[in-house]
Amino acid sequence: MDLLSSQLREAGYSTQTWGLKTVDHPNLTVQNDASALAEEVLSPLIELQGKDVVLYLHSYAGFPGSAAIKGLSKTERLAAGEQGGILGLIYQSAFIPKPGDTVLQMIGGTYAPWHDTQTGLVNATDPKATFYADVVEPLASKAASQIRPQSLLSFNTPLSQTYYGITAYDDRRTYLHTNRDQALPPFAQDAFVAESGVPWNIQQLDTDHSPFLTQPKHLADIVVNNVKAFLATY
What we know:
- This protein is of the alpha/beta class.
- A four-stranded parallel sheet has the order 1-2-6-7, with helices on both faces. Strands 3-4-5 form a three-stranded antiparallel sheet.
- Helix 1 packs across helix 11 (216-231) and helix 2 (30-48) packs across helix 3.
- The longest helix is centred in the N-terminal third of the chain and has 19 residues, at 30-48.
- The protein starts with a helix and ends with a helix.
- Helix content is 39%, strand content 15%.
């Protein structure tokens, strides 16, 4: 995400990235990732600093992100007389889980052929081909070398609740659909959106799974346009 973050900073926006707690930790679940995102990133920015935030969720991050946003929307906080809040949501080739869903369930009930689970963690057998097929070298190899395994529990533990569907996010939900994605194929992304039960502003990207590496300037422009669109609804 560094290239995208750099472009957004050049456009005048501050950014903050976060890492998953379930990486390299076999005993942690998706709930640990959700709690960490809420407590270590969103709450300090919103509740302590009173900042407005647009949450960008990629791939698996749709799972913890959908739970971590509880009570933090701009609409809810305005109603409570509080400053700051989540202006809107951007899901990029991301899972859109419903309460009770697991990652494993949403990918069809079995691990993908490129999943390696023999170590007790979930790893990608060929991350460069799966996630970065359209990324140029040496960037593709560098990105692939940074992929770390996640806990099996992050794939098979359900979320108890999700909050993207509340009315506070009506007209403030964007789904960036990656049309050549080999990790989460387009038909899967279509199903996630259709089965979420709420409307999304779907925007198409003619890329594989990681446009933040292949088209960071174009993607930053898309993010900025969405930020402006979210702001215009308040």
